[in-house]
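Quick one, tokens below:
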């Protein structure tokens, strides 16, 4: 299970989806500011109860966001820069320093979540993890591990959590191969009561 870094909640924000579609857990938000080289950065966290959320490193100028980097799975390292020109490597260092400050001041907690489901198929360990964003969006990630040597073979993303893989982040096989594995994991998860399906959306049950 991954170790995550989430911020102590300062407020609660509710986002509802229309109709009878699957509703993700209500995310809580938290954050704090710190100064780095004369600039005030802010680390903000969006964490659905019992699941992995995401953190963002933000720099504002007179209320306008001039930089934003995302830690998509709260593992303590930024994954990408979505706004601004600070290089990712530098942003990772700033973010790490901010987390250390937050840990010292009691604003950051290390948490282990159990929001994945795994099965072994064809001597490969297939793990599906659900991520819920603050805006109500959900996506699933399929990670394929070689059971014999314990190495990660592939990472594939279902952006809409609708059962259809959209993006091969890592892996040498065709997407159709990973899609077949993904559907097998989803079906086994449904049978085991670890995955819910509502209006075509698949969600890991913690």
């Amino acid at each position: 299970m991954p170790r995550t870094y989430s911020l102590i909640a300062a407020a609660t924000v509710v986002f509802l989806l229309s109709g009878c579609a699957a509703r993700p857990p209500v995310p809580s938000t938290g954050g704090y500011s710190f100064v780095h080289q004369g600039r005030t950065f802010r680390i903000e966290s969006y964490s659905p109860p019992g699941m992995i959320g995401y953190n963002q490193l933000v720099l504002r100028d007179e209320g306008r966001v001039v930089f934003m980097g995302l830690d998509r799975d709260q593992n303590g390292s930024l994954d990408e820069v979505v706004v601004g020109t600070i290089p990712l490597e530098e942003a990772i260092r700033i973010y790490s320093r901010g987390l250390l400050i937050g840990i010292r001041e009691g604003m950051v907690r290390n948490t282990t979540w159990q929001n994945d489901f795994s099965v072994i198929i064809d001597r490969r360990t297939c793990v599906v993890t659900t991520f819920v964003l603050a805006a109500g969006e959900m996506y699933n990630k399929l990670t394929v591990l070689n059971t014999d040597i314990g190495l990660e073979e592939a990472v594939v993303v279902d952006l809409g959590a609708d059962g259809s893989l959209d993006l091969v982040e890592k892996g040498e096989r065709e997407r159709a191969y990973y899609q077949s594995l993904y559907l097998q994991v989803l079906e086994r998860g449904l049978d085991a009561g670890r995955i819910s399906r509502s209006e075509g959306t698949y969600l890991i049950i913690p």
